[in-house]
Amino acid sequence: MAGLPVFGPDGESIGRVRDVVAGLSIGRRPPRVLGAVVELPTRHRIFVPMLRVTRIEPNAVTLATGSVNLRKFHQRPNELLVLGQLLDARVAVDPAGTPAVLVDVAMEQTRTRDWQLSKLAVRERTGRLGRWGPTRVLAWDQVSGLGFAEVTGRPQGVQQLLAMFDTMRAVDVASTLHELPSKRRYEVAEALDDERLADVVEELPEEDQKDLLSHLDDERAADVLEAMSPDDAADLLAELSEVDKERLLGLMAPEESAPVKRLLEYSSDTAGGLMTPEPVVVEPSATIAEALALVRNPDLPVALASLVFVCRPPSATPTGRYLGCVHIQRLLREPPSTLVAGALDTDLACLSAQAPLTEVTRYFAAYNLVCGPVLDDEEHLIGAVTVDDVLDHLLPEGWRESGLPEAEPNPPPKREPR
């Protein structure tokens, strides 16, 4: 069910399934499925009771009504997230107590129309070398070790979660991690590679960022900061104590920490604090084909790819004298063999590093841009501001935790009892 789209009875799109909520029962009885965690297009996560679900198909989940409670989902005591907490749990197969790991869970509807977790797919550990055997499908009461305290208190693998995350964007992974208990969040963070973890940390709320960074050992934390974009790393370090900030900067490679240190010199609500020091820069002797090759880089953010800045050497920020920029639409219209110097936009106004957020906002609105150059007093390019960084500072505080506001004229109804 992970990631399945959710529709109302008339086919209206509501969101996607991100997890299933179950209440573990006393003894060995199969637990009752309470509902699904559905992520709305605004990244806001809500709880939808199973009584609202009319059909679960291989490609979609259909609800009985398009009217849902928009209150943010909060996990209650004695509830477990099936994807987030049950998968990868260490269990024992009865009667011999053979060690195994839980790799999937099946749920089915009973005669009373309730849903319950009925079957478990497990892989047993076999042989002296501790290899995993083939997958077996067992009834819930044939497996032990799934009590609430056992699941939430013991170390747990993350292979199934990581497999699910492989198909998700970093922002969706961040939303999932935010909803997980701290124990599972730490286990996932430790298993992700530095690049992937850096992408996810950039999308987390500020408190979650600091919490994860403090959990990692200093060397790993410095590696993750190096993998983050310099502006996001600077924003995160600015929230730490001076002692922690200097210690982590000292552990970073000098070529990685240098741009971060430059950004930390500016206030966070100025163009200098908002900018990234790694825009696309070419020399005037570069060809259109060379400029297009740079913006084709799949790792380059879309906003940064919209403008190529032309400067005298050196090309790394702070560059030589800034000459102008070339818009990507112009690059696509010009013959590949011509020089970028012949396609320059020299009339576009530039931002100063000290420009306040209000001035930066007016700049983007006036020129209809998604990226703009930032110059120092000597007309050297020192970075570029992108519209996503501006929006981050314009949106209400805590928008990552609460999601974007819904366009609903009436207040949401009370949450249904489960």
Automatic annotation (TrEMBL):
The record ties this protein, via InterPro entries, to: CBS_dom, CBS_dom_sf, Mg_transptr_MgtE_intracell_dom, MgtE_N_sf, MgtE_transporter, PRC_barrel-like_sf, SH3_actinomycetes
Give the span(s) annotated as Disordered. Answer: 398-418
Report keywords, A-Z.
CBS domain
A single GO CC term for this protein reads: membrane
Looking at the record, the residues that make up the CBS domain are 344-402
Q: Does the keyword Cytoplasm apply?
A: no
- MF GO annotations: magnesium ion transmembrane transporter activity
SMART domains in UniProt: MgtE_N
**Taxonomy, superkingdom:** Bacteria
* The name this protein goes by in its record: Mg/Co/Ni transporter MgtE (Contains CBS domain)
Q: Which organism is it from?
A: Saccharopolyspora kobensis
